[in-house]
Amino acid sequence: MNISKIYRCRLIPAEHILLKDDVIVEQNDEFVITKWNTLRPKPCFSHGCSCYFLQEGIKVSKIYREDGSLVYWYCDIVEYTCDKSENALTVTDLLADVIVYPEGRVEVVDLDELAEALEREIITKEQMTACLRNLNHLLSMIYRDKFDRLQTRLNSLGL
Predict the structure, then answer these.
(1) Are the CB atoms for 138 and 98 separated by under 8 Å?
(2) DSSP state at residue 40
């Protein structure tokens, strides 16, 4: 499928938006790579690029400051849904995230939101299970020094 639109779906806060300004740089059956500017300007970063790993339930983003320096790598655990009639990819954020800083420090964040989503029954058992499995897979890659496999797609394009 040739993706021409990407939608971001969040559970907390609830939103479903078209990422109309994201530029699709490359895509195939395994991944979609985009570059983008922040939707809501932030003082600590202004733009970035993302690789949506379609088989792994992971989105890896490289986040930059205005001056082009790297802030960190931000990894979302996500669920993908394709709409072939619209050539659209919907990316549902399953809330658990991992930040990898340039010096190598790793931070797992937003697990409180994941718990809240389960309590409020806005995440299904299947989504929760997939989220935890994909989070474990991502952390295993990071802790075994294999994160470069996920970084390579963006780095090889000079993004």
Answers:
(1) yes
(2) S
CA atoms of 3 and 89, how far apart (whole Å): 7
Q: Nearest-5° angle of CA 103, CA 64, CA 5?
A: 125
Q: How far is CA 88 from the centre of its chain?
A: 16
For residues 88 and 5, what is the distance between their CA atoms, to the nearest angstrom? 5
Residue 144: φ, ψ to 5°: -100, 15
Please, how many CA atoms are within 13 Å of residue 101, restricted to the half-sphere of its CB? 6
With a threshold of 0.90, does the pTM exceed it? Answer: yes
Number of helical (H) and strand (E) elements in the chain, helices listed first? 3, 9
Q: What is the pLDDT of residues 42-80, one digit of tens each?
A: 788 899 999 999 999 999 999 999 999 999 999 999 999
Closest CA to 26 of 42, 49, 48: 49
In angstroms and rounded to an integer, the radius of gyration of the C-alpha atoms of the chain is 15
Residues 6 or more apart whose CB falls under 8 angstroms from that of 129 comprise: none
Q: Which residue has the tokens 């991944």?
A: 31
